[in-house]
Each structure stands twice: as C-alpha cells, then as structure tokens.
Amino acid sequence: MGYSIGQAAQKTGLTTHTLRYYEKEGLLPFVRKNSAGLRVFSDNDINWLNMIECLKATGMPLKGIKQYIDWFREGDTTLPQRLEMFKQQEKNIKEHLHRLQTNLSKISYKIRLYDKAVELGSLEKAQGLEEFKNDRLKLFGH
Amino acid sequence: MGYSIGQAAQKTGLTTHTLRYYEKEGLLPFVRKNSAGLRVFSDNDINWLNMIECLKATGMPLKGIKQYIDWFREGDTTLPQRLEMFKQQEKNIKEHLHRLQTNLSKISYKIRLYDKAVELGSLEKAQGLEEFKNDRLKLFGH
DNA sequence: ATAGAATTTAGAGTTTACTCCAAGTCAAGA
DNA sequence: TCTTGACTTGGAGTAAACTCTAAATTCTAT
After folding, report:
1. What one-character DSSP code corresponds to residue B85?
2. A46-95 tens-digit pLDDT
3. Do B107 and A54 touch (CB under 8 A)?
4. In chain A, what is the straight-line distance between the N-terminal and C-terminal CA atoms, in Å?
5. Statement: the CB of A39 is under 7 Å from strand D
6. To the nearest whole percent, how much of chain B has pLDDT over 70?
C-alpha cells in the first residue's frame, strides 16, 4: 500500500532519478513523505504514473502532462479543458498511427526490394525487375 | 531539376537550417555545390530527404540514418546489413503501432468518462456510474 | 548599377528529458 | 557499534535535434 521510491521505480519501469525529476517538474504533487522525509508512493500514485506513461508514450510533452495534472487539481471547473485535451490527444494519436502505417508500408517495400537485392547480390539488378521497376519513383529512390 | 536550399526546404517541409545541419551530420553526401559554392539539390536528393523523413518519422535516430547512408555508399557488399536494418525497423514500427493502439483505447475511455463528467458537472459522479465503476481500476484511476 | 533577398560558414544557444554526482541522513543486520 | 544500502537535496552534466547569429558573398530584379 506504501512504496519506497525504489519500489515505485520497479513497478513503473522508471528510474528513481526520473521519479524525482518528475516530482521536481510538478508531475507528482500527490506523493507524500513520511516523518523521515522519505517519499511514500501509494497505489494511487502508481496509477498516476501509468497515466503519465500513457500520455508520454502517445507524444505529449511533460509540460502538457503537468497542465493536465494542474487542471485535475483545480477540480470540476476544468472538466471541459481536460475533455478537450483528451480529444486533441486522440486526434494526434490517430494521425500518428496513420503516418506510421504509411511509413511501415514503405519500409516493407524496402524489405521486399532488399530481399531480392541480397539474393541477386546487386541493388541495381533488383531495381531492374518488373516488380520494382514501376514502383521506384512512386515510393522513393533509395 | 536543380533546387536551391530554400526550394528544397519548401519541397520537404524542413528549414534551410535543418538541411545544413543534416549535411553537417553526413546525411546529405550527394548534394552538389555550384561554382559559387551554393548547394544545388537534385530530384534524387529530394528523394533521399523523403527516405530520411520516413526513417526519422518511424523513430530512427539521425545516427542510424547516417549508418544506412554510409552503407549505401559502400555499395552492394553492405546489402545484408541494410536488409537487416530495415527488418529491425519494421519490427520497431509494429511494436510502436501496438503500443499506440493500446494507449489510444485508454484515451478513448477517458473521453467517454469525461464526456459524461462534463454532462454531470462532476468527475466523481461520472466515475460512480455502472458504466465506469468496474473499469476504474482495470484501466487507471485518473 | 544597385538594392534587397537568399545563401555561405563557423560556431554559439536552446529545448527536452533525462542522468549523474556529492555530501549528507537514516534504518536494518552482523 | 559499525557497515551497508537506500534514501535525501541541490545542482551539474549529457544527448539529440535542432535553431539562431553574424559577417561575408551571391543571386535577382529593376
């Protein structure tokens, strides 16, 4: 129910350095300290760290995450802002997914090309094949 | 057929600063200069920049991109390394896509929750609804 | 011919997100 | 009691990828 910074680090996959850095940046305003001044992470704090990880992994900078946390602390008056933020984030993720899928197909094309090139021992020869001749400029040259 | 650095910047969406930076980092060894010392970008160079953009957008650091370009310049003896690199990159992209999709569903959950919260004027009330009561700990608290 | 826009270089500065260090405190085991 | 290991703080250092500056040169349009 109460974790040391080391235990919290283990649970989240972050380092203790990073956890202290996040606190310094205002991302962990909920973490308490015991009488000796040691941080005590609750399960709730671990949940917050998972939320932070989710936003971070989807491209939100720490500043944006801090904004969300500040809004959360302000209470229900900021519900619309938070909703708007999540909607914007959803849009960003979908765009990112789309870009990633487009680029994945380019890389997969490269793999097909290089598979043949390795087989033939020559990139030029592979590019000369009917299969790749037409795509060449449509995708990209290298 | 021959573009100034400004035109190349326009075509790629990069800045002239960034193009010069890339050249300094060894990412544009193909770009020629005219007799006055001005860079002249060919269509082939623009294709290279698109390739660089593809690798960058899928998470490859500039160092890795430079490695690829160096291998390319070495010729067909490095075909296997390049194929391996593309395969690794494909794997990275697929993992990234998967993580992004997982996190997208978390964000979409948040949007549903906050939609209700805005409607009710209270996050607590929304979290109390049957629809969200059970999911609360499964996803995350905030 | 000349004004003004674009380009050149070397090098300094910025931002983000850590990452590490030093010097000190605190709790638990041999 | 002593040592070991985890923790504390403030602050310095790092890596990546730009981003900007200054002074000089070159191109373009009138």
Report:
1. H
2. 999 999 999 999 999 999 999 999 999 999 999 999 999 999 999 999 99
3. yes
4. 55
5. yes
6. 94
